[in-house]
Amino acid sequence: MPHPPLRLGVNVDHVATLRNARAGPNPDPVRAALLAIEAGADGITAHLREDRRHIRDDDMARLKAEISKPLNFEMAATSEMLEIALATKPHAVCLVPERREELTTEGGLDVAAQHNALAPVIARLNDVGIRVSLFISAEPRQIEMAAKLRAPVIEIHTGAWCEAVNDGHAAKAEAEWQRIVQGAALARSIGLEVHAGHGLDYGTAEKIAGLPEIVELNIGYYMIGEAVFVGLVETVRKMRAAMDRGRNNPAPALSANQASKA
User: Fold this and answer.
1) Are 91 and 71 in contact (CB under 8 A)?
2) Which of 48, 121, 126, 227: disulfide with 232, CB 3.0–4.6 Å?
3) Does residue 61 carry a pLDDT above 90?
4) What is the DSSP string of 139-160?
């Protein structure tokens, strides 16, 4: 049986980071999104942070109005962000943890501990037809709570695995990889759609693309960095090619029984 197609979501946050360094209009994250779609991206991701350090409110409005592919609105589960999401009406909202002092998202959302606060946010988004994703670590209790909260999608935080790979810590990288493999299998076995992202580069994207349970990768920082040297269109094409290579050499799938014991 063929594995489901693997989608690439391109995160344009750090195009806005460059723009904001000079407080001018360029480079424009909406232009970057349009180029990424032209090069083969299946969707665009943007994180509107509380402090507006990169993406701004008007960026979200323009992205929704101008791109032809789905918009994935990353946000903290706050009343302010919920109202913006309801007004913007993106294809999807990915709920993420957020601390003002962090450089980047440091870990997955603790849905097991925060389920009472998350439940009404997820319910409101579900009610208006916005697809909800929860950005979580590949831990069984987090995955199972995501299903109980009626979030149809999870996005597995791959940062710890990618960091271990980049640092050459083979044992830690293997342990983190096995958590991802088992978590993806568990999530799929209980009916969740599985995405992944954070810290991925060409090599790690190619490897994780071999997991048949995962149907979307969201990648940003690495690709914007590469684009400085070879251009965004070429970077998207190379990432797409790496993902396709991985998809054509899939990792063995765990059975539902193996996943439930993970």
Assistant:
1) yes
2) 227
3) yes
4) -HHHHHHHHHTT-SEEEEE-HH
The catalytically annotated residue of 47, 54, 157, 195 is: 47
206 is catalytic: no
Could you confirm whether 198 is annotated as catalytic? yes
Q: Which two tokens stand for residue 260?
A: 């439930």
- Report the alpha-carbon distance of residue 136 to residue 194 in Å, rounded: 11
Given a contact cutoff of 8 angstroms between Cβ atoms, the answer to whether 62 and 28 are in contact is no
Tokens of 94: 């990915």
Give me the pLDDT at residue 132, please. 98
Average pLDDT, the chain: 92
Two tokens at 142?
């987090």
Distances in whole angstroms, Cα of residue 165 to Cα of each of 27, 174, 200, 210: 31, 9, 10, 17
* Token code pair at residue 21: 């360094």
Q: Which domains does the chain have, with CATH numbers?
A: 7-261 (3.20.20.70)
- Rounded to two decimals, what is the model's pTM? 0.91
Catalytic residue among 14, 54, 74, 206: 74
Active-site entry in 139, 193, 198, 226: 198
